[in-house]
Amino acid sequence: MPQGLFRYIWRVSARDQILLSLLAVMVFLLDLAPLELQRRIVNGALEKHALEQLVLLSLLYVGVVLAQGGLKLLLNVYRGSVTEAANRRLRLQLSPSGPDGRTGEPDARKEGIDISIIVSEVEAVGGFIGASVSEAVLNGGLLIAVFGYMVVLQPWMAAVAAVLFLPQFLFIPFLQRAINQRTEQRIKVLRGLSVEIVDEAAERRGPRQTGRYRRQVGDIYRLNMQIYRRKFSMNFLMNLLHQLGVIGILFVGGWFVVRGETEVGTVVAFISGLNRVNDPWGDLVNYFRDMTNARVKYRLISAALGDRAIATDATA
Fold it and tell me: 215: which DSSP letter?
């Protein structure tokens, strides 16, 4: 297996990643249209009482939503097929456990690690492969495009939104690094637990030691709780900053409306735009989280496989 996760992704799914990325570009371009349509409906059709324009813009809005929804459906189903193909490939790359050359008996450690990889570790890697490029293209493109639209519409309100996103560049990598360390420890403990269970099932060492088993289960619980605390603390801080951004835009936008320097529809579009920025930003944070988690698990899977023979052809 290649040393890097993205090298492996490119080797097994290059064509799929290109097609998924093209679909992602189409989705995020369509996602910009509702912002301008909302602004035009409020500032144009409603203020001028233009019923014909209102009907036309509303029908256009419906068409955009349907087109965007259909493309998202296609994108997600395609991603799912790439994910499951990657899961199947990784599982088939695990050779059936054979006898230990020294004892003529099956290798319990290898069996236990294989079980852990097949049952739990492969899913995270395969799941990331399906979204590895298209997710970054979709949400990164959407984030840049929407924020650019906000800058053109009203630079000062865009500056308020940008300032409130900056602290996240500090605490997100710090918390995610701590989560990854505990994820790696948890995988190692789970593998050890699998080895113990396989050994007991084969009656090679008799019943597993109760003290060791309880200690391993306790370690898994402790590591999971540490991961939850950091993960949900990250979500809390992100949501807090988003709400502060909404308050900031309402204050600054309201100030400009009172002074006659902007329109109510612009403030409405900005609130909608901030929500549209927040969603892809949250998805990019999840993408970063999934990527680092998949890298940890891919590295451990690659190390476990080592120089084993591939059980099936890589195209199976």
Answer: H
Q: Which two tokens stand for residue 298?
A: 């891919």
| CA 193/CA 215 separation, integer angstroms | 10
C-alpha neighbours within 13 Å on the C-beta side of residue 300 = 27
Using CA atoms, how far apart are residues 177 and 182, in angstroms rounded to an integer? 9
Higher pLDDT, 206 or 220: 220
Q: What is the predicted pLDDT for the residue at 43?
A: 67
pLDDT tens track for 46-64: 566 667 777 787 888 888 8
CA distance 193 to 208: 10
pTM metric for this prediction:
0.68
Q: What is the CA radius of gyration of the chain?
A: 25
Full DSSP string of 247-290: HHHHHHHHHHHHTTSS-HHHHHHHHHHHHHHHHHHHHHHHHHHH
The runs of H, that is alpha helices, within the chain are 5-40, 51-92, 108-116, 122-131, 134-153, 155-165, 168-201, 210-258, 264-305
Residues 6+ apart with CB under 8 A from 97: 106, 107, 110, 111, 114
